[in-house]
Each structure stands twice: as structure tokens, then as C-alpha cells.
Design goal:
By secondary structure, the chain is mainly alpha-helical. It has 12 helices and no strands.
Length: 332
């Protein structure tokens, strides 16, 4: 511990002022992005006027369906249930071994959010699979009823056939293209958690393996099985879910990722202003003259972390659309 964090002199200085301006500005910009693009009523109004889908649009089936029509949604359900059980077991084991103090770290905040994502996703996938099976069952029932009526079917005459064909063509010409119903609030919340997790996992794993592990682990940290899992397996499961799901990834939702990190930083400031404690990450320590640079550097890392995940999704869509053009579910 380099300085007493509970004294006024620790906070009333140029270092904290610069860091506070940076964090608060980030929160304001994030709030503006959310207000501009996330307003669903406003987006629907603009969509009707411009005949163009809003950037944050989500259809109901995108939260539980797979990226390929040939992959049954039950596979995504099974994966999410397995990931939820594994992540929850690791989180509980970490709490039992190290105590509730683990939630002092951003890593555990993110790991908990990923666990919530897979638990939430399991529930949504169960709903989706029931809906999918009901649709398939209804389709089969319709065909069986048609088969049972074929015994009394009387084919039309040549003139009737031509007339029927012309009527069907006229109906098809005026028939609007089918779109699944738009998602409700729960599905939107699920997608927001997904996009927040994607950036936060990339940030925690990259900071740990590129900054903390090479330079600070010798005296402050000791690697063990749980630490390695906390900084790797959540990313592995999230990438697996990304490969299977068909959710969109609008870029403006980086705002939620930024807010997630800013809330953690403000939480740390409030705790350290009240109680003299060690910092969970050395670069958060405001006593160093390099603190503003550390805050700025870690803050700017949000852009490549989020961008890399978005590129992974773009690459997945490109490869699957080329390899399985008839089965791929295209997100417009």
C-alpha cells in the first residue's frame, strides 16, 4: 500500500481530477449512444419512415436459434446449460476457497455476468425449443390432415386450374415477406448482456495475460487452477456460444461495456474513499503520477477488445455464408 486512500489529500489533486474527467466523460458519451440508438419507439418510427431496419433491431427467434438451419436449437440449449453449470460450479468453488472478497475484482464481476448470461440463455433456449417443437408439430399435423383429406379430393378442370394458378400468382405478388415477431424486453436485455460480456471478457483476459501475468505475477500473484480458469474458460464458452447463435452485434452497444467498466471504477473509488484498502489492480492506484496514463490506456483498450469480438462475428458470418449458403441464417 503506497498511500492512505481515506485521506482528502489522496483525492484532491490533479491526478484524480484527470481520471475523473475521463471516466465521467466516457459515461456521458455512453449514455448519449444508448439514448440515440436504443430508444425502441424512436427506432421503429425511423424504420417506418426510412424503410430501413434500426441498428438495434432484434427478432424474437434470434435469441435462441442457431446460425445454421441444419443445426437444431436444442444443440445451443445443451451448450448453454453445460456452460452455465460449469461456470456456476467454478464461481461457487472460488467463493468457498477465497471468500466473498473475490467480488472486489473486475474479473469476478465479469465472470459472474457471463454466468448470468448462460443461465438466462438456458431459460430463453428452453422457451425457444418448446416454440420450435410446437411449430414443427403443427406443421406435421397440418400435413397429416391434408393426407387424410386426399381420399375425397377432386382435381379441378383445365380451366379451373389456369384460373387458380392466376389467382395464386396475384396473391403471391401482393403477399408481404415474412418476418418473425420482434423481440421483447427480455430478449433485448439478453442481447445487451451478451455484448457487454463479449467486451468485458476480452478486456479481463487480455489485461491479465498481457499486463498482470508477465510483469506483476512474481510478487503479487500466484497462478493456480481457479485463476487460470477465471481468465480463460469464460472466453472459451462465450466464443462457443457465438459460433452457434445467430444474434446480431450492433457496434453502438459498446456503450454498455464502457458503462460496466466505469461503474466498477466508481465503485472502487467510493470504497477506497471510505476505507483505506489496497487496490485490486495496481494501475487503479491514484497515488502514481502515471495514473492518468494508465486510466487512459486501459480505457482505450475497450475499443480493440470490443472491435476484435465484432470482427470474429463478421468472420464467422462470412465463412458460414460461403460454406453453407442454403443453411445460413442471414442477419440483415
Amino acid at each position: 500500500m503506497t498511500a492512505d486512500t481515506a485521506t482528502l489529500s489522496y483525492w484532491l489533486n490533479w491526478r484524480f481530477s484527470l481520471c475523473a474527467v475521463f471516466v465521467l466523460t466516457s459515461m456521458v458519451v455512453a449514455a448519449i449512444l444508448i439514448w440515440k440508438f436504443e430508444d425502441r419507439k424512436k427506432s421503429e418510427h425511423e424504420e417506418r419512415e426510412n424503410q430501413k431496419e434500426a441498428p438495434g433491431l432484434l427478432y424474437e427467434d434470434e435469441a435462441w436459434n442457431t446460425c445454421l438451419k441444419s443445426i437444431h436449437p436444442a444443440w445451443l440449449l445443451s451448450f448453454r446449460v453445460f456452460a452455465f453449470i460449469m461456470l456456476l460450479a467454478l464461481l461457487l468453488a472460488n467463493v468457498v476457497i477465497d471468500g466473498g472478497g473475490i467480488f472486489f475484482f473486475y474479473t469476478q464481476w465479469t465472470f459472474t455476468l457471463v454466468t448470468i448470461y448462460f443461465g438466462f440463455g438456458s431459460a430463453i433456449s428452453i422457451y425457444g425449443c418448446r416454440k420450435h417443437w410446437g411449430k414443427v408439430g403443427g406443421y406435421r399435423a397440418d400435413h397429416s390432415s391434408l393426407d387424410s383429406e386426399q381420399g375425397t379430393y377432386i382435381p379441378p378442370t383445365l380451366g379451373e386450374t389456369a384460373d387458380t394458378s392466376n389467382q395464386s400468382k396475384r396473391l403471391d405478388a401482393h403477399e408481404a415477406p415474412y418476418h418473425p415477431p420482434k423481440a421483447g424486453a427480455w430478449a433485448y436485455a439478453f442481447q445487451i448482456i451478451y455484448q457487454t460480456c463479449s467486451g468485458a471478457v476480452m478486456l479481463t483476459d487480455s489485461v491479465f495475460w498481457l499486463i498482470i501475468f508477465p510483469f506483476l505475477t512474481s510478487s503479487d500473484y500466484s497462478l493456480n487452477f481457479l485463476i487460470v480458469c477465471m481468465h480463460s474458460i469464460n472466453g472459451v464458452f462465450l466464443l462457443g456460444d457465438t459460433i452457434l447463435n445467430c444474434m446480431r452485434f450492433p457496434l453502438f452497444r459498446i456503450a454498455y461495456f464502457v458503462l460496466w467498466t466505469c461503474i466498477f471504477v466508481v465503485f472502487q473509488w467510493v470504497i477506497h474513499a471510505c476505507v483505506n484498502l489496497w487496490w485490486p489492480y495496481p494501475f487503479l492506484d491514484l497515488s502514481s503520477s502515471y495514473a492518468p496514463l494508465w486510466y487512459l490506456g486501459v480505457g482505450l483498450m475497450h475499443i480493440p477488445c470490443y472491435g476484435i469480438f465484432a470482427l470474429i462475428i463478421k468472420l464467422k458470418d462470412f465463412l458460414l455464408s460461403r460454406s453453407f449458403p442454403e443453411s445460413f441464417r442471414k442477419r440483415t
